[in-house]
Design goal:
single chain; about 450 residues; alpha+beta; Immunoglobulin-like; 5-stranded antiparallel beta sheet; about 25% helix; disordered N terminus; DUF1214_C_sf; TAT_signal; DUF1254_sf
Length: about 450
């Protein structure tokens, strides 16, 4: 029978402990099993700190695992132009957006800056620039020519090129182009064809042929599953290596001084023996309860919007809010800052009962979300696994382009059900089991949003 302390940071329930064959050691006995003081708390702090960096790297490995660019992947420093919206087969990132066509690129700035050309468009279109720690370094919204450079780069740029500094060598760019139905795809393709991504030296010379990448079969994995399956040594050695070229922020110094006891930091080599007796078990228990623990601790950042809850600032620019940063990386990698988008979520109906495909619901709008500029809104359904729900008509969301039929008073009701109604115009398919909804609002009008009445989810 396995043993652990009652003062475990896992707060393991008696039922779970019994099911796993775990009984509890007295606190004093358990602490004597650790090679360093406070090993439990340090292990958790280190994991929460490094998780965004490691999952970003795993996502990069998967997304660049190809010899040539296609509509799913592209080699480093090349565009991956999606040619359709995400569907139920998409498994790269949880809770994918199905309103916009993505053009993504993973950049390596170790040798030189990359030139990114943003064309003029007639619709919502922006480019989110994320650093290796999942912070949004910039959002490119105006058409123009941008140089994405590593902070501290001292070179000279051509006239008219705007410099965007990023503090890490690894950069993830996500361009979102809003789509109005399948018939609008040629217009989106035309925008993608005007986008350019070129190393600075090749941009200056005027000649560039993207190099061939490589494909490794074992790198065909689901990034989040890959990271969660890592041993402590695999995880922290990966993080330590990544921190060399993607350095921690200056404000991380105090935490890194504490984590040095675990040999966690740039260029360090993690010593698994420091976790002491039962270290592997504690690691597995930590991962088992990770998502629920993060969600609980992140409630301080939650904002209420009717029956919906969204996460507010400092989302997308996290600073030292490490737990919050990891929670967002786990459930929605690549989240925007609140001036660009918010993502209200509900898992319950208007009576507070958990949503289930065993029932039929009515999503009732008295009015639609207020936005500015070329902003838009949508409601997307996801299963308990945080991925899109397979359905016979291939509909994963409703939005301001869905052509929904209004009621006589101008309000709109959307039917949420696992089985199709007779009229599917206002139908959003849901899972047979549990499900939840995300209400995305891009370019929210904050002057009026706080007084807006959010939609309700009512049992029919």
């Amino acid at each position: 029978m396995k043993m652990m302390t009652r003062r475990s940071f896992l707060s393991l329930s008696a039922a779970t402990a019994a099911a796993l064959g775990i009984s509890f050691l007295p606190v004093e006995t358990a602490e004597a099993c650790f090679a360093i003081p406070d090993a439990q708390n340090l292990l958790e702090e280190a994991y929460l700190y490094a998780f965004p960096l490691v999952i970003m790297n795993a996502t990069k490995i998967y997304s660049t695992n190809t010899e040539t660019a296609n509509n799913i992947r592209a080699p480093i420093n090349q565009f991956n132009h999606a040619r359709k919206l995400a569907d139920a087969s998409f498994r790269t990132v949880v809770t994918p957006n199905v309103d916009t066509i993505y053009t993504q690129a993973w950049l390596d700035l170790s040798e030189e800056p990359m030139i990114y050309v943003v064309p003029a468009t007639d619709r919502f279109f922006n480019v989110q620039v994320l650093d290796a720690w999942t912070n949004t370094a910039a959002v490119l919204e105006e058409p123009g020519i941008y140089a994405i450079v590593r902070s501290g780069w001292q070179g000279t740029l051509p006239e008219g090129v705007r410099k965007i500094e990023v503090p890490t060598t690894t950069v993830w760019t996500i361009a979102r182009i809003v789509l109005s139905g399948t018939e609008d795809l040629p217009n989106v393709y035309a925008i993608q064809e005007q986008m350019q991504l070129t190393p600075l030296s090749m941009y200056i010379s005027g000649s560039y042929v993207p190099p061939k990448g490589s494909y490794v079969p074992e790198n065909d994995f689901i990034p989040v599953n890959k990271v969660l399956a890592m041993t402590p040594k695999e995880f922290f050695d990966t993080a330590n290596d990544l921190m060399v070229l993607n350095p921690p922020a200056p404000e991380d110094a105090a935490l890194l001084r504490r984590l040095a006891a675990l040999h966690v930091g740039p260029g360090e080599t993690f010593d698994e023996s420091l976790l002491g007796l039962g270290g592997t078990l504690r690691w597995k228990m930590m991962l088992l309860q990770l998502k629920s623990k993060l969600t609980e601790q992140a409630t301080q950042y939650a904002r209420q919007m009717g029956q919906w809850i969204y996460y507010g600032d400092p989302i997308g620019d996290f600073g030292t809010e490490y737990t919050y940063r990891t929670m967002v990386a786990l459930i929605g990698l690549g989240a925007n800052t609140t001036d660009i988008a918010i993502y209200p979520k509900t898992e319950v109906d208007s009576s507070g009962n958990t949503l289930t495909g065993k029932r039929t619901y009515k999503l009732h709008f008295t009015s639609f979300p207020p936005t500015v500029d070329n902003g838009f809104w949508s409601v997307t359904a996801y299963g308990d696994d945080d991925f899109l729900i397979d359905n016979p008509i291939g509909r994963y969301c409703v939005n301001d382009r869905s052509g929904l039929t209004p009621n006589a008073d101008g309000s709109v009701d959307v039917i949420l059900s696992a089985d199709a109604p007779e009229d599917t115009t206002n139908w959003l398919p849901i899972a047979k089991g549990g499900f939840h909804l995300f209400l995305r609002i891009y370019k929210p009008d904050w002057n009026t949003l706080n007084n807006w009445q959010a939609p309700t989810v009512d049992v029919r």
